[in-house]
Amino acid sequence: MDRTDNRIDLNLFRVLDAIYSHGGVSAAARVLHLTQPAVTHALQRLRDQLGDPLFVRQGNRLLPTEKVRTMMPAVQLHLKGLHASTHAQPRFDPAQLDLQFTVGFRDILESIALPALLARIERDAPQLRVVSRRVAADEVERELAAGSVDLVVDRPLRAGSRISRRHLLDESLVVVMRADHPFASQLRRNDYLGAQHVAVSPLGEANALDTLLGQDGMFRQVRLVCQHYFSACQIAAGTHLLLTVPRSYALHLATLLPITVQPLPIKLKAFPILAYWHESKDADRAHVWFRQWVIEAITAAIAPAQRRR
To answer: What is the mean pLDDT of residues 269-293?
Structure first.
């Protein structure tokens, strides 16, 4: 008598989908909130039951076999159906969310957006926790795919087709200086290029503005490089150094520090600000709700500043 049990644990297909979507056992473990050995064990069980290796290693990634590529559309469709049927809720209530969201912010956006965002969270989602941290540009796609960061707001970045994005607004550059600076009433191009500057480079990378200027044969004298814009603004407020900074942040700091703001006397296109997240979060109701709040906090803080002056 054949006693073979042909039943397959449906949870194994969740593991299969996570490995397929995120390219490895470690990333799948993070997304599923499981240990790496647990995911490895589940994968081996499914290999035994399906009689196929399912994935083959190539470098740091696990590549799906032909069997997996063939079956995954149906597997993902059924998983979505099961998830929808078992997680359907009559009403979404932010007050019941007991979650932590991690957002990749530059320090400028952090100081502009977080106060408004926190006020809304305290009012409507008191159990929600938020972590803001810097994510290197070349790590954004990997961290979003791994689930170690939920949302990134930054300038245009290189990211694959599985990274969703939304254009939020366009930002321009201005020049900040102390209130009684000789250029406080008017700043010309030759004045700007002949002056000494404080620049900001959080990760020690080449400053994008200097790269752009150099392409047109223009160079400025950078006397000091800081990690953060606020400290750079404090230095500009008390020295002869000029600081080039996004306009919305400059107008924000002009209410806090003895500085004046002048237009950048060099024509540069405004640069876009975008939000990035992994496509697996496209329809996640908590994530949709949270990222919309982040987007609204940013646009509400920056748009009025862009209309001033």
So the answer is: 90
